[in-house]
């Protein structure tokens, strides 16, 4: 993490903030920060919100590298959405780029992502998230974490699939906060441990955002998880998706009901196809996701009704 500038690196920081949220992965976090600071272009501001039990002494001691202001925030809170909101409120730039703490950024990542962001008050830029080489014999990446679309695109209005990922995305800070920030009931570290990005993406699109996909803005997701872990993640991702669908359906969003139905039909088809080709692990993964979606939706609906009942009782 030297402050020296090598050939190809720019002395002029990019006019945005980069936000990294982390919990309990100090080594991975340091590597991610190092890859950002080693890029061809660094941001004017790098924020780290760390919800680990112990503060990261190395990051806490940093203040500036290559003109990039480094702000390390150790927080006793839990939940990825809460951490993102803390970082967004603390950011000083109008645009904030989000990445995860288990990623390496390509040297040209930031300049490509920022270059693909139009000068509009309601614009989002996204890039590709590709799998890094396996770390260990069984190292793998959750498929849901990858963004492999290799064609530039602009998305407007309702989308049948997610076009705003949780990482490798640059968002307008003020708009996200005006929308209420990330829903702190969703995402890692909560009862519904996913779909915080699905929810934010859906709300941004409904607010009139344009999403510009920039395939040349590349980050690598580290392949450090084992395959058995992926089945557990499928359950969590499914519960988050179910809660997301139930949340917006309860707001009388008929388009989200159509999207939920298409998602369930697609997963049923994939499970059947996997069973026919005698791939029990793939079939089980899709069925686990489906059961998770149903579980998350019911949990969200029941919880909402209980809260309504409590409010009425309190009156």
What is the C-alpha radius of gyration, as a whole number of Å?
Answer: 20 Å
Uncertain stretches of 5 or more adjacent residues = 1-7
Question: Structural class per helix/strand content?
Answer: alpha/beta
Q: What CATH first level of the largest domain would be assigned? A: Alpha Beta
Instruction: Name the helix and strand elements from N-terminus to C-terminus, one letter apiece.
Output: EHEHEEHEEHEEEHHEHHH
In whole angstroms, the N-to-C terminal distance is: 57 Å
Helix run count: 9
**Overall tally of structural domains:** 2
Mean pLDDT: 93
Q: Tell me the name of the CATH homologous superfamily of the largest domain.
A: Spore Coat Polysaccharide Biosynthesis Protein SpsA, Chain A
Classify the fold: give the CATH topology of the largest domain: Spore Coat Polysaccharide Biosynthesis Protein SpsA, Chain A
Characterize the overall form: globular
**Name of the CATH architecture of the largest domain:** Alpha-Beta Complex
Helical content (DSSP H or I, runs of 4+):
40-55%
Largest sheet: 10 strands, mixed
What percentage of amino acids are in beta strands? Answer: 15-25%
Key structural traits:
disordered N terminus, 42% helix, 9 helices, ten-stranded mixed β-sheet, Spore Coat Polysaccharide Biosynthesis Protein SpsA, Chain A, 2 domains, 22% strand, alpha/beta, 315 residues
3D structure, described in words:
The chain is α/β, with parallel strands linked by helices and 315 residues long. The protein folds into two domains: 14-225, Spore Coat Polysaccharide Biosynthesis Protein SpsA, Chain A, CATH 3.90.550.10; 229-314. Helix content is 42%, strand content 22%. Strands 1, 2, 3, 4, 5, 6, 7, 8, 9 and 10 form a ten-stranded mixed beta sheet that branches. A hairpin with a 2-residue loop joins strand 3 and strand 4 (68-74). Helix 7 runs antiparallel to helix 8. The N and C termini lie far apart (57 Å).
